[in-house]
Design brief:
- This protein folds into 3 domains: 90 residues, Beta Barrel (conserved putative lor/sdh protein from methanococcus maripaludis s2 fold), CATH 2.40.420; 89 residues, Beta Barrel (Elongation Factor Tu (Ef-tu), domain 3), CATH 2.40.30; 131 residues, no CATH class.
- The strands form 5 sheets. Strands 1, 3, 18, 19, 20, 21 and 22 form a 7-stranded antiparallel beta sheet that branches.
- The protein contains 4 helices and 23 strands.
- The longest helix has 37 residues.
- The two termini are 77 Å apart.
- It is α+β, with helices and mostly antiparallel strands.
- 27% of the residues lie in helices and 36% in strands.
Amino acid sequence: MKNRRTIFLTTICCAAGCLLIGCGKSVVKAQESAEAATGAPPPQDVQTEIDYNDLTVTHPEQFPSAAAGEHLATPELSVTGVVNPDVSKQVTVPSLATGRVTEIDARLGDEVKKGQLLFKVRSMDMSGAYSDYRQAVKNEQLTKLQLERAKLLFDAGAWPKSALEIAQNAEDDNIVVLDTTIEHLKLLGADPENPTPVFNVVAPVSGTITDQEIQIESAVQSYNTPTPFTISDLSHVWIICDVYENDLAQVHLNEYADIRLNAYPDRVLRGRISNILPTMDPNIRTAKVRLEVENPGLMRLGMFVTATFHGDAVERHATVPNAAVLHLHDREWVYSPLPNGHFQRHEVVSGTTLPDGSLEIVSGIKPGEQVVTNALMLQDTSEK
């Protein structure tokens, strides 16, 4: 009897549970049908992004604005270049004698004066030149004595005139040989009265040693390459620039460019365009442009510089305070005030910083337009 009652209660509980589950499904289906009928989407969390191109603030008076100024400028083209020696002011210093270097008295980068000793070479050429000189001296002395004897005999009638002429010709030939050997010694810088096998090489001009190809015990060949030293006059240098093909129309011979050294950005030098090479680099499509510059002592060979070429036409650009330009992700922006606390953002392209501290705006706004004087403060406030 008791088991029957338990089975009965269990059956009633299961039936009640099924009834509740069915009611729940009906309620969910009813809600879905209602949403489908009204077209309302299910609720979601939505985050509104700030539109920086059109900002609205509650206190616009906190962000003062000013009218953009005006600056008249000519079109500019800036290119990179490298300092090179003026080849017309370079002198190679060869060895006039073949031999081995025994002493070096100047090094790469040294300032040298004309006539200063550079290096010494022990050479058989020197020994041979002295040997030829001494032999020429003895031969000339011998023929001179023979000529004097021939004259005495000719005057006494004991010597024919033809013999006198032969003696005179021999003396003349030996004088030529002696003069040649003396000139050879002078060419080598040797003193005929002080024979030595060592050849001294001196600087032919004053300047800076910009190339050195020898060391102690190096072998050198007379009038052969590579030359032991190269001396350059660095008071006047060349700057070789690469100008793209599309920009060549802005570069003209005999015009001047502003030169700024990367090492001394505050110094501005002037360079004259002396040559535009007639060939183009086929890989990067650039032409070599040569500038001639007087070196105030700051320019070193191999330095990188920036050359700015100026066009003829005058352009009207706007100027704004430096703080008015917002630098963001390699782009530049300014804000202009609008009514009812609105501010509109404009992309601009800046130029150079002017002497009064303002910033030149090449494009994006015009002179006279209002801009917020502190763009970063406005953006920071809108983000809070």
